[in-house]
């Protein structure tokens, strides 16, 4: 059984997440999401997956997401997935300030069990999730 993953934001960094995930054993790259539909179409075609224009379209389709959107919307994109129990890898920084990401929010992001903020090796992140 493959881990179903999508990449939200396929700009400068997200395109690399899509490339790496599309080649990993045990991973199904379910979709790439970008508000720039032409960009989503391009990256999806390059990696044999489907393009989407809105992260909400992933509901029920994924076990994990990697988020590589502008910092100011990391939290807004991550929260619905975290609330649904979907594992989230977010490019750093998680938020513009600790207060923005911290315990004052409805779902604390600082110590959430399904949240991983940036890693040196994407392979290590998802390999550990499968075991």
User: Per the principal axes of the C-alpha atoms, what is the gross shape?
Assistant: globular
Structural class: alpha/beta
Q: What's the Cα radius of gyration?
A: 14 Å
Helix content: 25-40%
Order of helices and strands: EHEHEEHEHEH
How far apart are the termini? 12 Å
Number of domains: 1
CATH architectural designation: 3-Layer(aba) Sandwich
Query: Which regions contain 5 or more consecutive residues with pLDDT less than 50?
Result: 104-111, 119-131
| Strand numbers in spatial order across the main sheet | 3-2-1-4-5-6
Looking at this structure, what is the CATH superfamily?
A: NAD(P)-binding Rossmann-like Domain
What structural keywords apply?
5 helices, 131 residues, alpha/beta, Rossmann fold, globular
Write the layout of secondary structure elements.
Elements: E1 3-8, H1 14-23, E2 27-33, H2 37-47, E3 50-52, E4 64-67, H3 74-83, E5 87-90, H4 98-101, E6 115-117, H5 122-130
Parallel strand pairs: 1-2, 1-4, 2-3, 4-5, 5-6
Helix pairs in contact: 1-2
Structure explained in plain terms:
With 131 residues, this protein is α/β, with parallel strands linked by helices. The chain has a six-stranded parallel beta sheet, with helices on both faces. It contains five helices and six strands, in the order βαβαββαβαβα. The protein is 34% helix and 21% strand. Helix 1 (14-23) packs parallel to helix 2 (37-47). The chain has one domain: 3-Layer(aba) Sandwich (Rossmann fold), CATH 3.40.50.720. The protein is globular. It has helices at 14-23, 37-47, 74-83, 98-101, 122-130, and strands spanning 3-8, 27-33, 50-52, 64-67, 87-90, 115-117. Strand 5, helix 4 (98-101) and strand 6 (115-117) form a beta-alpha-beta unit.
